[in-house]
Amino acid sequence: MSFSDTRLRVFHAVAKHLSFTRAAEELYLTQPAVTFQIRQLEEHFNTRLFDRHHNRISLTEAGETVFDYAERILELYRETEKAVNEMTGETRGIIKLGASTTIGEYLLPPILSGYHENFPRVQIRLSVDNTSLVVRKLEDATIDMGMVEGPVSNKNIAVAPCFEDELVVIFAPGHPFESMEEIPLAKLKEYPFVSREEGSGTRMVISEHLGKGGLSYDQLDMILELGTTESVKAAVEGGVGFSIISSVALRKELQLNSLRIGRIKGIRFKRLLNFVFQKQKFRSKAVEEFLNFAKQRCALLHPDI
Whole-model pTM? Predict the structure, then answer.
């Protein structure tokens, strides 16, 4: 948890989320341990820092004051660590990284492996969620930076491109699409469609591109809505319907010939996979090194199909 005061970090996490449960998840502690630390801090100040009513909590006036100082103190801790690490020449610490599903499952593993070889003293904690949740965690400062596959419009978040990805139509061998050199847009409405869930960056991109072609996402015959690319591929392999997913997720299936791919006439589903981070938030040396390393690796990537 770094060298800073544990109680202060626990208090800051609870105050930020107004949730003992979310604070425990962020800090990798049990909920009773979080409750104990808050109780100790309240005893130290001899006042309540949180009002508890039913299943909700809020900061007292004293809690608001402590929260303001806690943010400033923890920021100074981070700056101190960075300054000393730069003097000693060693990169170490913890990076809390968030990634949307496709990136976390298919793009990040080799990047993380290469980074660990170069910076073995850095510990990375990765959470994989859909794009909307990654952005929310970044806004809450639950993570240091993220990598997402959907558009981000928050003015407080900086976006840096990583890799241009293409989404392609996938279907099982023998599907009617297999006989088509390019799939007419109107044909998509005629067959069952396997979709990603609401909030998915992939779904946002598909909806945007189909809309530009004159086809609403709601016009698709959505037979399943699934939370991961792996579950989508499994359903399509089983003959449930067709889908549209990232080309980076298809290496194994194309080698095994268990899926076929197609493209829609007149439409190319291109999107940027992006790094995202808060514009004003201090970044440790470990985070800076990871961002630079990942950008270099992204520059070497190329589509497989």
Answer: 0.63
Q: How many CB atoms lie within 10 A of CB 77?
A: 16
Domain boundaries of the chain, sorted by first residue? 6-87, 92-305
Helices (H), the chain: 6-17, 20-27, 31-45, 61-88, 101-102, 108-118, 131-139, 201-212, 229-237, 251-256, 285-300
Say whether 20 sits in a helix, a strand or coil. Answer: helix
Sort 152 into a burial class: Cβ within 10 Å, 0-12 / 13-18 / 19+.
middle
What gap in Å lies between CA 230 and CA 194, rounded to an integer? 12
Q: Mind listing the pLDDT tens digit for each residue in 106-158?
A: 888 889 988 988 888 899 999 998 888 898 888 888 899 999 986 787 888 88
DSSP code, position 105: I
What is the helix (H) or strand (E) element at residue 278, kind and residue range? Answer: strand 269-278
Tell me the C-alpha distance between 124 and 96, whole Å.
Answer: 6
What would the two tokens of residue 148 be? 């997402």
The whole-angstrom distance between residue 100's C-alpha and the CA centroid of its chain comes to 4
Containing 99, the helix (H) or strand (E) segment is strand 93-100
pLDDT tens readout for residues 82-114:
777 666 666 778 899 999 888 888 888 889 988
Yes or no: say if 57 and 50 are a contact pair by the CB < 8 Å rule: yes
Sign of dihedral through CA atoms 4, 5, 8, 9?
positive
Domain 6-87 has CATH 1.10.10.10: yes
Using the 8-state DSSP alphabet, how is residue 183 labeled?
B
Considering the domain 92-305, what is its CATH architecture? 3-Layer(aba) Sandwich (3.40)
199 and 226 Cβ atoms separated by less than 8 Å: no
Residue of 78, 85, 75 whose CA lies nearest to 119:
85
Query: What tokens were used for 246?
Result: 């990232």
Structure tokens at 53: 């009513």
